[in-house]
Amino acid sequence: MAGSLVSNEKRLISAAVVLMLTASLCELMIPYYTSKIIFAFTNKVPLEVFHQHITAYAAFALGFAVFAAGRGALFSVINNKLSRALRYRLFGVLLREPASFHDTQEPGQLTSRLTSDCYAITRCIATNVNVALRNMVQVIGGGIILVRLSPQLSGLCLAIFAALWGFTVLYGAYSRHSQRVIQDVLARSTGTAEEALQSVRIVRTFATEQQEQDRYKSWLDKLYWVGMRQSAAWGLYLVAGTTAHHACLALSFLLGGSMVYQGLITAEQLTSFMFYVQMVTSSSLAVCDQYGAVMEAIGASERVLQHLNDQPAPQIAAGQVPPGGVFRGEIELRGVWYTYDNRPDAVALSGIDLWLQPGKLTALVGLSGSGKSTLVALLQRLYDPTEGQVLIDGTDLTLLDAKWYRSRLGVVSQEPKLFSLSVRDNIAYGCPFTPTQEEVEEAARQANAHEFIAQLPEGYNTPVTDKLLSGGQRQRIALARALVRKPTLLILDEATSALDAESEALVQQALDRAMQPADGSHARTVLVIAHRLSTVRNAHNIVVLDKGKVAEQGNHAELLEQRGIYWGLVRRQQKGLGPADRDLSPRKKDPPMLTSKDWDYGEAGGPLQSRDSGVSGVGVGMSATSNPGVIEGSTAAQSDSPKSLLMSAPASPQPPALSSMGSGSAVNSLAMYSLSMDEDVDEEMQQLGSSSASRPSGVATMPPSWRNTPMVGSSSSSSTAHSSSNGSSNGTSNGNKQAQQHLQPGSVVNDIVPMKSKIGGASGVAAAEQRKVQQAEQGAKVQ
Fold first, then answer.
1. Are 616 and 529 members of one domain?
2. Taking a C-beta distance cutoff of 8 angstroms, is the pair 280, 249 a contact?
3. What are the boundaries of the region Disordered (predicted)?
4. What's the CA gap between 252 and 153, in Å, rounded?
5. Alpha carbon distances (Å) from 455 to 100, 468, 470, 722
6. Of 672, 643, 638, 680, residue with least CA distance to 655
7. Are 582 and 603 members of one domain?
8. pTM tops 0.85
């Protein structure tokens, strides 16, 4: 490929070579006429001949100046053209390298390839080769003239030149190796500096300025010592070259003078010979210098040339396009295995079988390292499976045109990258069609970004800089960039993780609308990678990955019934426990199913009113006592949500100590403890699996350990409680009667009514909460 770059400029290069040869020939004639002019007076040549020598000297000198200037200008143009073409070609090659290549390369090193390495190549072609060829012509031409002037003297000089050339070859080999090492170290140092400067805020936050400076210095030290060794070699080469040059001149004077005294040659011939010896030795040194420079350039450009000569990555190779260019959005993974090239011993995915239905929302859930990102990368065809197939509408993805396929994708990553373009250009970036301003603004509205974009200094024409936008704003622009493409497959990798609750709700509504294109031609497939329960619970299919395998899949209720990995993740997230909670909710806690927007809570037994359902009951104001299992009904405290009622008591099978409480407080605590004894998701899914119509309204069973538990109330009921603890049926009856005295209309427990959320009491946690309240009420009555 490097050869093709040179061949593209062959006309300019040919013209430059012609000018170079002409200039060299003119320069070769200058020493000849110089000696003629000097000895014109000694030889007493006619004045006309003297003028002829002067004229010829001036013509060749002028010709040399003109042609040399033309040669330099053309080679300068060639240098600029080659530099532009080489960087453009290399940049294209690097962009098309497979993802596995970029997994092992640092951006700073690749940037160094584009800058210093490309400069070394173009300098070599346009400067070093140019100078070397010019001096080579002078060495050859001058050598021929030397042989004609004196074969004896020229033989001696050629022997000295041969020794110099041998030393030059050795120096060139060393320079090639040394320069390759220098370019590698320079690339590493550039990458280190670029990394630190891009993360300067983190560096300052952790006060590691000196540490980063020392890390950069370690590369500079390596560069310094490699450069010192190369400088030492260069110094030895200069000593050898200068010695050869002056040795040749000194021996030519010595032997040439003897030959003049012997009458073998004339003084004019010796003078001309010395002029050409000076030219040939200088040109030889220049050729040797350029040879070393060419070897350095070859060493510096080896990796660039390797990239240029690589075959195009298969991911961008042209493939087939379905008839009509229609992508329905059906995706199937059959027995997919994948192992990263740089980690052959670690299997990222093993035996994945998965079907993404058109128009359906599929969620990927799993702990870090479970293979979620790798699976999404396969769907984007950043990698090809090691084994198995990824089928797009029944066609193997490797057979499809990658550019066409990716134009049908919309991807929003967890850490979106925006370019140094205007906001509008960032939203329209990569769009397969040219979107209108209205389409751009509509996509921004769907992503809840239009309002803050309109407030920017230049609106949609505002250039994006690092400090212009917050993280959430960048993510919403990235979401708009995905939506404006009108993709068939929409991939969201924690796309709403940086949004506040209100923005998330608006964006989620937009995503729900985006499931179907405006023209209604075909369904849109949505794949979500998420950790937050609120994001994945409404998915049509939830896929749980564990150690590169599909461990579970189904909808939210089905996975909870399985009591597997997903059940554990949800349980931990609801309770806010352990690493799973941090993995499920890396930024903020998962919002409750019912929030303060859904219910109003009264003070200490005041009315409880649903804003949407209109169901009223009794607000249970409470606060935890010193005993974590005891909650007093007399304290005027407010709960954040009905979910907090479920989480207020520990999931312990032992009843709380109630002996020190009044009867009304004891009944209230008993009801609230019954509410918390469902073991959260455990009990919820058991009740979801049974019909709510299978028992009368308000009937709930007590936990087995509580069925014969005595009620300890006030002094008037203490004897009844003791008798029931002895197992007497009479005592039990009295205990029930005594408890029922406290369940009169208007009491805290007796007035608890089933709660209905605004999404209905038949699904999700809201349904379970309704049943838990019923269970608490009936449990108190049973006692």
1. no
2. no
3. 576-664, 681-783
4. 6
5. 41, 12, 14, 72
6. 672
7. no
8. no
